[in-house]
Amino acid sequence: MLGLFTWSDDPEDNNRKIDIEFSLWGASDGKNAQYVVQPETSARIRRFELPSGRGRSVHTMRWEEGKVTFESRAVHGGQDSQGAIGTWTATSGVPRPGGENASSFPPASDHPMLSRSSHGRPRSAACGTAGNFSKDSSFSLKYRL
Q1: CB 97 within 8 A of CB 138
Q2: What is the pLDDT of residues 98-134, one digit of tens each?
Q3: Strand 101-105 to strand 2-7: parallel, antiparallel, or no bridges (unpaired)?
Q4: 26, 42, 71, 109: most buried, per Cβ within 10 A?
């Protein structure tokens, strides 16, 4: 299980928890990845297959007022490929961005291939640690696996 997510210590808006997760969850349908806006409901989750043997991949989340856009792409020769592995724009129950943190589980320091970049105005976004983001109107995270 690998989870890439935002959260807030403020219980408002379900702690502003938004996830990109990788696991089989005991399912046999081959879908081993998902995007989730918490709390999880059928309208707030999108499952997809991250093909085995695909090599490296890039996973992005752009959070704006009223929507979160997710995208996963394979990486070939150090460049993001043209074809998306998974995409989704969530609009149901999306909390307003502001004051959240970003991290991974297990921590990025346990995954030497995991790196993170952010756009917006992060207060702290060092790879392997939680980044706390200022009360911006939007931001995006990009994870390379």
Answers
A1: yes
A2: 777 777 776 655 554 444 455 554 333 333 334 444 4
A3: antiparallel
A4: 71
